[in-house]
Amino acid sequence: MVLLGWENSLGWLAFLSLIPFILLYFVRPKPVELEVPSLMFFMRSQHAAKENSFLKRFRFDLLFFLQLLILSLLALYFVNPFTSFGGDILVDHAVFVLDTSASMQVDDRFSEAISLAQEKLARSNTFILVSNLPRIGAEDISKSDAGRFLKQLRVTAGRSNIGDALVLANQYIKGKDDQVYVISDFIPTEGITLEAANNALQSKNVVPQFLSVKGKKQHNNVGIVDLRLDDAATTVYFKNYNNQETSITFSVNDQEKNLKIKPQFIEPYSFKTSLGQTEVRILDKDDLLADNVAYISVPEHQRLSVLLITDAPARYLKAALQSSGKVDVTMTPSNKLPKGSFDVYVLHEVSGKLNKDLLNALTAAVEDGKGLVIHAQANSNALDYGELLSLDLLAYTDDAVVEITQLTKLTKNIVFGDLRKYFVTNNEQGVILAVANNASVLTVAPLGSGKIIYYGIVEEESEFSLQPSYPIFWTGVVRYLAGQGDLHDFNVETGSTLSLSSKKEVKTPSRIIGTNTLFFDEPGFYSYDTNVIAASLADELESNIDAISVENAAASAPLSTFTEEKRYNLEKIVLMLVGIFLFLELFFMKLRGEV
C-alpha cells in the first residue's frame, strides 16, 4: 500500500515558487522617524526588546499561512499525487488488447469493456485495438492519460481479429512482470487462433488474462452478411440467426421489399446494378444495427482511350482491349505516331528498331501521368527500349509455368498457364506480380507521374489469349493504368484502411476530417476529391453475436497471480482544497476590511 505517491517527478520543481513568496514575507519597510509624546515612548519601551527581536518575523499571520497553503497545494497538483490500496504489487506496464469490433455494439459489451480496462490501468499503458487489422491506439501513456483515452474511445463496425492483435501485443511487452489483458466478447472472425497467439505470449513467460464481456442472453438478429457486385447485377445476402422463421422488410433505396427467411438460413436478393449510390436497409429493428444496412457505390467511368502501337494485326489483343465496351482503341504502326493524348499506350509487335522519336514521345507521356504496356515479342531482348523497360531481357528459353507472386486486382482469378518460350530477366525494378522460373513476366514500375507494365508473355508462345480471363486481365490493366478502379475499389469492408497519396479532406458518414490514411470505421459513404467509397459490414461471422465464445479454450494456462494495487488519483481533491482555501482567504480579507 502506498499512502502518497506521485507520477510526475518534475512537478516537484513547482515548489520552488514558494521561495520568493516566503522571502517577500520577511521583507519589511524601513522604519520612518516620527515625533511622538515621551509618555507613549515610555509605555512602549518595555516591549522594545521583544518587538525588535528577529523572532517577531515569525509572529502568526493567518492570511500568510492561507496563501502559503494554497501555493503548496497548487505545486502539489503538478506532481500528479495518488494513493493506493489493495494488492502488494503495482503493475508498471500493462498491454490492453481491447475489442472495438462490430459485435461489441450489442447490449453494454463495449461500456463494460471500458470499465474493466479502467480498473486494470497501470503506471504505463499500451492499447491495441481489435479490428480487421489491429492497430495501436496509444503507447506507453500514464494512468491519467489512459483514463482520458478510454473515455474518448468508440466502438467501430470492424471485424474481430483477436489473434493477430494478441500477436501484436507480444511486440510491446517490456519484461516478465508486464501484464496483458484481453477484453472482448471473444467471437473471432479472422486471423490466427487465440491458442496460437497465447502460446507466443507464454514463450515470454507472460500469461494474458482473458476478460469476457459476452453474456448468456439470446439475441434477435437478421443481418446482411454478403454483397456480390458486378457491372450488371448486385446480389445481397440476408441471414436469419434466429431459431424461428422470420419475415423482414427491407428497402433498396426507396423501394420496399418483403422476405421470409428460414431459421439459420441465408436468402439472396438480386437487382440491377445502378450508377451512383445505393443503400440497402433492413427496416426491422434487432440487437445489432450495424449489419442492417449495406452501401453500394458505382462510379460512372469515363470512356478511356488506348493507342495500340503495332505492326501486326493484333486481333486478340485489340478485341480484349475493347471488351469492356468503355475503351476506344486506336491502332497505329510504330513509325507513324498520331497526334493527341491517350490514356494508355500499348507497345505490341514492332518491326525493326524502335525509333527515338517514338521512345521520346512515350517517355514524355508516361512522365506526364499516362500508362504504358510493353508487350514482349520474340526479339524483345534485341530491342532498345531506353529507360522505359524496368529490367534486363536475357536469353529466350523454353518451357515454364507462370506463377503469381502477388495477388492484386491485376492477377486475382487470372490463370496465365504454360509458356513454350519466355525471357530470362535480370535487374528487375518495380513490383513483380508474376514469374516463370523466377524470371519476371509481369512487372509494374513507376516513371514520373505514370506507370509502366512489362508484359512478358509472347502471344504465339502461349494459350493465354484463348482463355476467358484474357479480356478480364486486359480490362483490369487499362483501368489500372488510367487510374480507374473496379467496383471492389469503391466498395470496401468496414474496418479496412486506405492510404491516400496526400492529405485529403474526407467526408465520412458522421464528420469531415483531414487525413492521408482513411479508416473505414463505420458503415456509410466516404467521399474525397471526386471519389465516393461505400463501406459495409456484410460479414457472416461478425454478425453471429451469439456464437460460442472461445476465451476458455484460449486461456489454457492459469491466470497470473501477479496482482495490481488499486490507485486513486488525488488531483481533483487537491484542486477542490485549493478552491475551498481561496474562498476562506477572501472571507478572511473581507473580515479585515481589505476588500
Structural account:
This protein has 14 helices and 29 strands. It is an alpha/beta fold. It has three domains: 5-84 and 571-591, no CATH class; 91-217 and 548-563, Rossmann fold; 304-481, Class I glutamine amidotransferase (GATase) domain (Rossmann fold, 3-Layer(aba) Sandwich), CATH 3.40.50.880. The strands form seven sheets. A nine-stranded mixed β-sheet has the order 16-15-17-18-23-22-21-19-20, with helices on both faces. It has a five-stranded mixed β-sheet with strand order 5-4-3-6-7, sandwiched between helices. Strands 11-10-13-14 form a four-stranded antiparallel β-sheet, with no helix packed on it. α7 (162-169) packs parallel to α8 and α9 crosses α11 (469-481). The longest helix is centred in the C-terminal third of the chain and has 21 residues, at 571-591. The protein is elongated and about 105 Å long. It starts with a strand and ends with a helix. Residues 47-55 and 553-564 have low confidence and may be disordered.
